[in-house]
Design goal:
The protein is α/β, with parallel strands linked by helices and 667 residues long. It has 29 helices and 10 strands. One of its GO terms (cellular component) is membrane.
Length: 667
């Protein structure tokens, strides 16, 4: 029996594979490959989708999984940390975009209700593309990454009221007050259910599932829970996406959140591809060609409106000019929830077919532009900073920031021989804690409002500012500093800071924290003295402990670590061995090993006896190296040393002998 949907899946994903492989060769993001594949299989091209409705259903499942994972990664506590950005920033961005878009639409002769609805559509950006790109670039925790995340979260939440208000705009609601009241009651009811689930139901159910030690059951429970909450919100007239988001938030506070994310992630990647393909298939190519000039003008108008409003919001939230521009370049597009909302508008006759095609073209073009703009956002921001803000104005702005945000740092203080810590994240906090403990003078520089607030609460010497700006560097006496530690998550900003610091001082020692080894060489070229990549420092710590278990001397371990770091971690990145260092030859002594045995059984001649009396060396041909008793280590071993029940005994010998001894003291 032929399954029609199976053919659609094979055709659509098969074409996508070919296109994405070609796009990867051209270094074009895979998202654009899915959009292009959708256009090819769509009705205006080769019309390969006979089960169109089923493909759209698969795309909606992708949105559900997407929002579920976003909810898990965010958490209620995480939401509260950026509540100002979410509710104030998001509210200003959505409200401002709706207002300006509606005014422009009305000026073009569109009626008020449709104009407001178009404002709804244009105000929403692409959570799927932006968060994916920011995560890949390692900028999700940067100042502009947090602004983008906060505004996108608000957009994901506000899309539900927009969907419910659409019938009202279309004039299909008889009593507006009653409709809004019912909406409020529904939201409160869902909120109560979510609270009960998070507090009582989910921990209990997942505890039982985890105890079963059945991985398949855990995956099944996670997916059923995601779809159950989505179905709950849908059944009361709210959106599936909001329910999935709530489901993620509920699980986010539990210890099972990371495993849940790992289980759902493959499903998200598969189904979200159908979403982008279905979006591309909606485009009418003939309409696009015939109206390409007007479409490009509308795209330009949308870009200007959204960039200006997001820039205003970021400025209102007291961010540096560079963060303002980076934020604006992150969420300038029209997103996937606009497409979902547009279908509601079509169903309620609020969006004519011609306007829908214009909107669809604008949406696809802006989404397609997003990866390219995000890749070049740092260069464009730097260009605009030089061109748009006169040097005198920028100097006054920075001076005002320093005066208003640096109460703990005396501007007349004669800082010298101090450490400058750029970024007050986890690394910055740890560095400041240690330098404070050993009385090394230091000053912290950060642009994140929450980080500044936290530093002030701890009475840290902190100033608000961009460490790449000359005025900030002068203020913290960069010429007199001994060390600069750059501990931020923004690769572009890191490079800019290094270059700026080197303009003032060639002697200050610059230490940079990065995520990837590939960033080492470039940072070193522009002036960094030492670059520490997170991805391999963890590996070094792990194998250092492994070498200790093989009795490699501390001096040899230090030589190995030094060799790896001095060669920019080539030993860890190369498939073939980069060295035949003799140190590694002593790791494996033929037919011998070091083991730790737990003395659990007292009915033998070993527990309670001395080493000499027990005959361990004579009967089992092993050597006792040390004994751990409680928290105490006994390293001075002699024949009179006694072995007690519950001791951990470190021994050296042949594997067979060790196993034989283990059976005696354990069973």
């Amino acid at each position: 029996m032929e399954i029609p949907l199976l053919k659609e899946i094979v055709v659509v994903l098969g074409i996508s594979i070919v296109i994405i492989l070609a796009f990867q060769k051209l270094k074009v993001p895979s998202i654009l490959g899915f959009l292009f594949a959708g256009i090819i299989v769509g009705p205006s091209a080769f019309n390969l989708l006979s089960s169109r409705h089923e493909v759209e259903l698969l795309s909606e499942i992708g949105i559900i999984f997407l929002l579920f994972i976003i909810g898990i990664e965010l958490s209620f506590s995480g939401l509260m940390k950026i509540k100002k950005t979410v509710f104030v920033g998001g509210g200003l961005q959505v409200g401002g975009t709706i207002l300006i878009t509606a005014l422009v639409a009305m000026a073009l002769g569109i009626d008020l209700n449709t104009a407001v609805f178009i404002g709804f559509l244009i105000s929403l950006s692409s959570t799927a593309i932006v968060l994916k790109m920011l995560q890949e670039k390692g900028e999700i925790k940067s100042p502009h990454g947090r602004i983008a995340l906060g505004i996108l979260i608000f957009q994901d939440i506000i899309v539900v009221p927009m969907m419910l208000l659409t019938p009202i705009l279309a004039g299909k609601a008889e009593n507006i007050g009653e409709t809004l009241l019912i909406l409020l009651v529904k939201l409160i009811g869902v909120g109560l259910v979510v609270f009960v689930l998070q507090k009582y139901v989910v921990p209990f159910i997942f505890k039982l599932v985890v105890k079963s030690k059945n991985r398949e059951l855990f995956i099944l429970t996670t997916i059923v829970f995601c779809f159950s909450v989505a179905w709950l919100t849908s059944s009361v007239g709210l959106s599936l996406a909001l329910g999935a988001f709530f489901a993620g938030l509920i699980i986010s506070e539990s210890e099972y959140s990371h495993q849940a994310t790992a289980n759902v992630l493959p499903f998200r990647e598969i189904f979200i591809s159908f979403f982008f393909i279905s979006v591309g298939s909606l485009l009418d190519i003939h309409f696009f060609i015939n109206n390409v000039v007007y479409i490009l003008l509308f795209v330009l108008a949308v870009l200007i409106i959204k960039v200006v409003i997001v820039a205003f919001v970021a400025l209102f939230l007291q961010n540096q000019p560079r963060t303002v521009f980076l934020s604006a370049f992150s969420i300038f597009q029209v997103g996937e929830f606009s497409l979902l909302l547009s279908t509601v508008g079509l169903q309620n006759d609020l969006l004519p077919d011609a306007l829908y095609q214009y909107f669809l073209a604008v949406c696809i073009i802006t989404m397609a532009l997003t990866p390219f703009v995000l890749q070049k956002s740092h260069k464009m921001s730097d260009f605009l900073l030089r061109a748009a803000i006169p040097k005198r104005v920028r100097k006054r702005m920075n001076k005002r920031k320093i005066d208003s945000s640096s109460q703990e740092v005396d501007s007349d203080h004669d800082w010298k021989d101090h450490v400058i810590i750029v970024g007050y994240g986890i690394n910055g906090q740890n560095i400041s804690r240690v330098t404070s403990h050993i009385d090394i003078p230091y000053v912290i520089v950060d642009m994140d409002y929450e980080a500044i607030k936290l530093a002030k609460q701890k009475n840290q010497p902190v100033i608000y500012g961009d460490a790449s700006d000359p005025e900030i560097l002068k203020h913290i006496h960069i010429q007199k500093a001994r060390v600069v530690v750059i501990a931020i998550s923004d690769p572009g900003a890191t490079k800019k800071i290094i270059s700026s610091v080197r303009l003032f001082s060639q002697t200050v020692y610059i230490i940079v924290r990065t995520r990837y080894v590939k960033e080492i060489e470039e940072n070193m070229k522009i002036g960094a003295d030492e670059v520490i990549p997170e991805e391999f420092e963890t590996s070094i710590e792990i194998f250092t402990r492994v070498l200790r278990q093989y009795m490699v001397t501390q001096g040899d371990i230090e030589n190995i670590v030094t060799s790896i770091r001095s060669s920019d971690y080539q030993m860890l990145t190369s498939i073939k061995p980069t060295s035949t260092n003799a140190v590694f030859q002593q790791l494996n002594i033929p037919d011998k090993e070091v083991a730790t045995l737990h003395v659990q059984h007292g009915n033998n001649n070993i527990a309670g006896a001395s080493i000499g009396e027990s005959g361990i060396g004579k009967n089992y041909n092993v050597t006792v190296l040390a004994i751990k008793r409680g928290r105490k280590y006994i390293s001075d071993i002699n024949p009179e040393t006694r072995i007690e029940i519950d001791d951990l005994v470190y021994i050296f010998g042949a594997p067979k002998a060790i196993n034989a001894l283990n059976k005696v003291i354990k069973f």
